[in-house]
Amino acid sequence: MNAPFPSTPAIPGRDPRLPLKLIVAAPRGFCAGVDRAIEIVERALLKFGAPVYVRHEIVHNQYVVDSLKAKGAIFVEELDEVPDDAPVVFSAHGVPKTVPAEAERRNMLYVDATCPLVSKVHRQAERQVEKGQHILFIGHAGHPEVIGTMGQVPPGQITLVETVEDVADLDFTPEDNLSYLSQTTLSVDDTHDIIVALQERFPQIVAPKAEDICYATSNRQAAVKRIAASCDLVLVIGAPNSSNSLRLVEVSERMGTDARLIQRADEIDSSWLEGVGTVGLTAGASAPEKLVREVVDRLSDWRAVEEDIVTAAEENMIFKLPRQLTE
């Protein structure tokens, strides 16, 4: 349990009794894929006993990772760090095909916690290649989800596109058999602009059957759009390597409202509230609600907080757990 925050002096030039209006975005925080991934690790620990190894962060949130470490999870970067006889969980971001293939070669017990919406993109990639299409994949280089998706098809059959400017540099013709897919945690607006550029340059390009950006990413961005215009500052709880959290910061800034990414409440500086009457608050899809309440308490140390919730969408998605953990 975190120690109470120390008392903090009043903000210079501000009446500490002056209320701070806090607009909390909804939906925020954990999505169904993150809930499922965390439960997979917890159930694996109960079923197999500690330690259970996890390849890469199960989700991009240090608080979550530390909580699972305390229960007996061991996080590693590569499969060769895992003993042959130890259970291992693959992260929610997905892995290249070579990873489960190596686990099977070593007769390892593994559980795949890949988000079902990411797995859907993986299956689409396989189908597009089977149809002879070269995939233009919209995403951010080096992100685990991008590495995992690009690793579903043979090398040379998928090309990464990060920006609209990248489209002009693509070495394809209008006669080439092309399709596109996208990372699930991108900016809705940025991805739309890239898709438009692809379709203008390659009218023959084949779109996926359904939107790749996941419902949780879209909903959290929509919620920030709803609140940002009414705020002087937006706080986004999330990790610096969390794609969907970084996109929430960008959405607010595009609305003309300053935004700051924080991992925990103790990162907030009282000076940020100087001249601020209304603060917006949201959390990326890997951040637990506990961290939201922690921020509210931190703000209450300095000002009387008047909290309001603005809802952009209702979420009731639930993903099934792998059968090997429910039998």
Automatic annotation (TrEMBL):
Name of the top EC class for this enzyme: oxidoreductase
Cofactor: [4Fe-4S] cluster
InterPro entries reported for this sequence: LytB/IspH
Cofactor binding note of this UniProt entry: Binds 1 [4Fe-4S] cluster per subunit.
Sites where the protein binds [4Fe-4S] cluster: 31, 115, 214
Family indicated by similarity: Belongs to the IspH family.
Molecular-function GO terms, alphabetical: 4-hydroxy-3-methylbut-2-enyl diphosphate reductase activity
Pathway: Isoprenoid biosynthesis; dimethylallyl diphosphate biosynthesis; dimethylallyl diphosphate from (2E)-4-hydroxy-3-methylbutenyl diphosphate: step 1/1; Isoprenoid biosynthesis; isopentenyl diphosphate biosynthesis via DXP pathway; isopentenyl diphosphate from 1-deoxy-D-xylulose 5-phosphate: step 6/6
Annotated EC: 1.17.7.4
Keyword 4Fe-4S belongs to the record: yes
Keywords for this protein: 4Fe-4S, Iron, Iron-sulfur, Isoprene biosynthesis, Metal-binding, Oxidoreductase
Name of protein: 4-hydroxy-3-methylbut-2-enyl diphosphate reductase
Catalytic activity, reaction form: dimethylallyl diphosphate + 2 oxidized [2Fe-2S]-[ferredoxin] + H2O = (2E)-4-hydroxy-3-methylbut-2-enyl diphosphate + 2 reduced [2Fe-2S]-[ferredoxin] + 2 H(+); isopentenyl diphosphate + 2 oxidized [2Fe-2S]-[ferredoxin] + H2O = (2E)-4-hydroxy-3-methylbut-2-enyl diphosphate + 2 reduced [2Fe-2S]-[ferredoxin] + 2 H(+)
Functional summary from the UniProt entry: Catalyzes the conversion of 1-hydroxy-2-methyl-2-(E)-butenyl 4-diphosphate (HMBPP) into a mixture of isopentenyl diphosphate (IPP) and dimethylallyl diphosphate (DMAPP). Acts in the terminal step of the DOXP/MEP pathway for isoprenoid precursor biosynthesis.
